[in-house]
Amino acid sequence: MSKHILIADDDTLFVDILTLGFQKHAAEFTVTTVDNGKNTLTMLSEHKPDLLILDIRMPYLDGYGVLEHMQANQTSVPVIVMSYFQDEVHKKKAKELGVKAYLVKSEWKIEQLVSEIKKHLGM
């Protein structure tokens, strides 16, 4: 059975690249996308994805707001942050909010992301 991955990012070009990269892994993963923090919370509660790939800067509710809400509501979905923010301040804050991995958008490869996903889903 494939694992459900939710991608929360308002950068449509980046989401398209991610989605295209996941096509090679279609047997392993089903991908759903949302473009803002409010819709992320809705998808988390209604569809219970196996893993969330989360951007920090999004409209309506940023990634930190999503993480804080998940923590307050004890939502146990593993989160991988993918952001253009490269500084240690953002990485530290994300880790404090329970993020499993933090990848910089300008420095990732799809196989690295898939490896992180599999590690955190026990695949």
Characteristics:
about 120 residues; alpha/beta; Rossmann fold; five-stranded parallel β-sheet; globular
Please, could you describe this protein's structure?
By secondary structure, the chain is an alpha/beta fold. It is built from five helices and five strands; from the N terminus they run βαβαβαβαβα. It has a five-stranded parallel beta sheet, sandwiched between helices. β4, α4 and β5 form a beta-alpha-beta unit. α2 packs parallel to α3. The longest helix has 12 residues.
Poorly predicted sequence stretches spanning 5 or more consecutive residues: none
**CATH class type:** Alpha Beta
Strand content: 15-25%
Give the CATH topology. Answer: Rossmann fold
Report the helical percentage.
40-55%
Count of the domains: 1
CATH superfamily: Response regulator
Tally of helical segments = 5
Q: Output the structural class.
A: alpha/beta
The span between the termini is: 11 Å
Main β-sheet, spatial strand arrangement: 2-1-3-4-5
- Main sheet attributes: strand count, strand direction, barrel closure: 5 strands, parallel
What overall geometry do the principal axes of the alpha carbons give?
A: globular
Mean pLDDT: 92
- Name of the CATH architecture: 3-Layer(aba) Sandwich
Short overview:
The protein is 43% helix and 20% strand. The protein is built from 5 helices and 5 strands.
Write the layout of secondary structure elements.
Layout: E1 3-8, H1 12-22, E2 29-34, H2 37-47, E3 51-54, H3 63-72, E4 79-83, H4 88-96, E5 101-104, H5 110-121
Parallel strand pairs: 1-2, 1-3, 3-4, 4-5
Helix pairs in contact: 2-3
